[in-house]
């Protein structure tokens, strides 16, 4: 049996199409576990803020040349399009039904915050 190498532990970005263009969405790392826990176990407001933070952290990895301020100016509808793909890239979606529910919850949260 082949010996495990450190590189074997590193997840690879997954390719998606957003706005008609290919984008590679990298998974978040051990440094981001805190935000995943908040997204799953926090109050409604904490979960919403954690989802926004997951989006921002991921977009900063995709577009490292942009500032966090620039990322925060991305329209909510774009975030809604990206967010399910971010969850898939991180292995947090197991079923189509779960994806639909999370997308709808995220959309509702965005509408409440306006």
**Total helical segments:** 6
Beta-strand percentage?
5-15%
Distance between the termini: 55 Å
Main sheet: which strands, in order across? 1-2
Shape: globular
Query: Uncertain runs with pLDDT below 50, 5 residues or more?
Result: none
Main sheet: strands, sense, barrel: 2 strands, antiparallel
Order of helices and strands: HEEHHHHH
Radius of gyration, in angstroms, nearest whole number: 15 Å
Structural class: mainly alpha
Mean pLDDT, nearest integer? Answer: 85
Q: Kindly state the percentage of residues in helix.
A: 55-70%
Give an account of the 3D structure.
The protein is mainly alpha-helical. It is built from six helices and two strands; from the N terminus they run αββααααα. The chain has helices at 6-9, 33-41, 44-62, 68-72, 76-89, 96-113; strands spanning 14-18, 21-25. It has a two-stranded antiparallel ribbon with strand order 1-2. The longest helix has 19 residues, at 44-62. It is globular, with a radius of gyration of 15 Å. 12% of the residues are buried.
Which keywords apply here?
114 residues, mainly alpha, 2 strands, 9% strand
Topology:
Elements: H1 6-9, E1 14-18, E2 21-25, H2 33-41, H3 44-62, H4 68-72, H5 76-89, H6 96-113
Short description:
The chain is mainly α. It is 61% helix and 9% strand.
């Amino acid at each position: 049996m082949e010996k495990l190498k450190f590189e074997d532990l590193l997840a690879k970005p997954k390719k998606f199409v957003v706005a008609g263009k290919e984008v590679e969405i990298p998974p978040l790392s051990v440094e981001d576990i805190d935000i995943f826990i908040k997204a799953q176990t926090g109050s409604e407001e904490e979960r919403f803020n954690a989802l926004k933070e997951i989006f921002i952290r991921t977009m900063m990895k995709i577009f490292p040349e942009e500032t966090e301020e620039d990322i925060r100016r991305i329209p909510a509808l774009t975030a809604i399009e990206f967010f399910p793909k971010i969850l898939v890239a991180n292995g947090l979606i197991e079923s189509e039904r779960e994806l639909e529910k999370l997308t709808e919850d995220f959309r509702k949260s965005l509408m409440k915050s306006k």
